[in-house]
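User: Teach me something about this protein's shape.
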Amino acid sequence: MLVIKKRFLSHSGPLFLSLFINPNIFHAKIRHSFILTSSYSFLHMEKIQQQILWSKAHVHHPALLEKLSLIYLSSNKTEVAHLIFDEIPKPTIFLFNAMIRAYAWKGPFDRAIDLYYRLIHFGVTPNKYTFPFVLKACSTLLALEEGIEIHNHAKRMCLDCDLYISTSLIDMYMKCGRVDEARLVFLQVKNGDVVAWNAMVSGFSLHGLYNDAVGFVLEMQRRGTNPNSSTMVGILPVVGEAKALLQGGRSVHEGDVLVNTAILDMYAKCESMDYALTIFKEVSLKNDVTWSAMIGGYVQCEKMVEALVIFDQLMLNAATNMSSTSLACVLRACASLSNLKRGRKLHCYLIKSGFLSDITVSNSLLSMYAKIGSICDASSFFNEMESKDTVSYSAIMSGFIQNGSTEEALSIFRRMQLSCTKPDAAMMVVLLPACSYMSALRHGSCSHGYVIISGLSSNVSICNALIDMYAKCGKIDIASVVFDGMKDRDTITWNVMISAYGIHGFGTKALSLFDSMRAKGFKPDDITFISILSACSHSGLVAEGRGCFESMTKVYNIVPRMEHYICIVDLFGRGGLLSEAYDIAIRMPFEPDVRVWSALLAACRTHKNAKLGSKVAEMIERLGPESTGNFVLMSNIYSTAGRYGEAARVRIMQKEKGLKKSPGCSWVEIDGKVHGFIGGDSSHPQYLKICEKLSDLFGEMRKIGYRADTSFVMQDVEEEEKEDALVYHSEKLAIAFSLLSLKGDRPIFVTKNLRVCGDCHTAIKFITLIAKRAIIVRDASRFHHFEGGLCKCGDFW
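Assistant: First, the predicted structure itself:
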């Protein structure tokens, strides 16, 4: 032994001596090897194992070998783990459970049972985690005798009623053919979950007990447990038998209606509507549940037309009562199809039949009007509703927000608070986007406070909405704090934060977050790539954006859709690679739409490429410009190219189509109140003071070098008039008002409905020098952070 130790010491040197003296170093080395997964680390694990055994450290520190054993188990080296396990004088219950579980799942299964009896022999007390593992081994081996004995052990420990142990016992007894014993175990379960029910259903199905299997499915639904795909798999073997009985001419009575309705409902829940329809047609006496299951199944599968066809058949069947569930589903179908005429007819039926007293039906009708966009009908019905709940308020608020009436949505929320209706998580997810759209930071901050007080701050959907709200209200730093403080995140969380960095012009941060997302094990989806490509576009990161686009298709196998091509054309166009952007547009695997050409047209305007701009303008003209923005760009491009006739023709075409350029509108929030400004409008109560402030500002700006860029005035007027028109752009009015209203050096935050023009962009940089204020402008494209005479966009937008 001395010779061996000397030889080992000569190879290990001081390291071995330190390990021999201080066993804590063993723990550190084991933890380090646990982190690593390469073959190199396992070589070191073997050396550490030898060192532990030679030094006899395991005699006084058995936890060392236990850690080694667990590491080998986690690496699927079960036999090596077992060898080390045998060296441990008295293994813990945790290690016993880990070893039993490994064999129960991957075999040899008899070793799991052997280890259980060894555990008993050592005097180690099994716990609630031990029994499910060893019972699984008994179930696989059909070891009924051992299973019964283990069941008795669990009874003596009063653990036989534990949900997981009971489910394992049911599975074991069913597979061993002891159906009655399985039923007795199930009856002792107080709060059985879907897994316990499925164990019974699968067991009955395994033994061909059709009536019992279907009966349990009906009972589980009656008790409020919804079947899942595993239920479907469990009952499928007996469905064939049932259909054979029906085809054999067996008379259909009420019991058969219930059975077939249950099967139909399961097919519908698994989105197998062809099979569901076959069962539906075979049932001659249909009840309201049968009809509801069929209509609901089609709606769930997004087959709205088919749902309405079944509903029409139901309307003709006078013998069957209508259910509120059917009506709610049909209203959802009308909303999805934007079928307002059908929805109004259904509204009349609901009034006559008295169904509007059902809050679920009323909410579905309200939601239908809101989703279709008939906000007048929605608002009128909402005011008529006798009783309202949080779903009612959420539906009408969503309707107002989707139709651009965010102030009305916030007003509804205040009405709800006065009615003492307590907002829930779903309500807050609706409210926060309203605050972000209006840039109503105070409302958003108050909502955040409510979220914290109500204990909803751990809700992932709410946190996602908070990140979006703060980012769109210009508070990207607070959005980042919310993101960093989240314990749980989903893909949407990462997408929202990447998008937030992108619209603020922090493309590098967006890319860093994209890398972190992948490092944390989250798989990017198509929305992720839209966000990151847009972020690269706003920051001029052309090479990085190109790499992301290539990885999307080659690494993640995501097929690009129109939105991705819009982003990549915009990326190259903004970056000045106009020819490459044009090549991408004409080589797309499908016909590019107006949005693709619009992105390229805007780039041609920015980079003053009149030749390509004229070609792109012609493409847009052929497709139909769709928006006033394209008409303006086209007119501008033609004018720049000296083609004044075409420019005039575009303006005439715009007038003929009845399309007017949307007036520039900006708004600011001052002390919780939102003030709106329209370019050239004089309706604000403090308009004269605002004009006076602007006059002072422009006087100071000209002294330090400001010159108006009149190319951004489209009207055919004198140069002096063009300069006057530029002074009264909406964002300048909003900034002047903010300077009058906000004292000290508080930053100014302005939201605009259109892209900020080049002259305003230049003017705001000068204003920050004169007023010594930070100014943030959120336009239709992105955020501009102005401070000290500069904008963080680097004049790249």
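Now, about its shape. The radius of gyration is 35 Å. Strands lie at 665-670, 673-678, 748-752, 775-778, 783-787, 790-791. If you'd like, I can walk through any region in more detail.
User: That's plenty for now, thanks!
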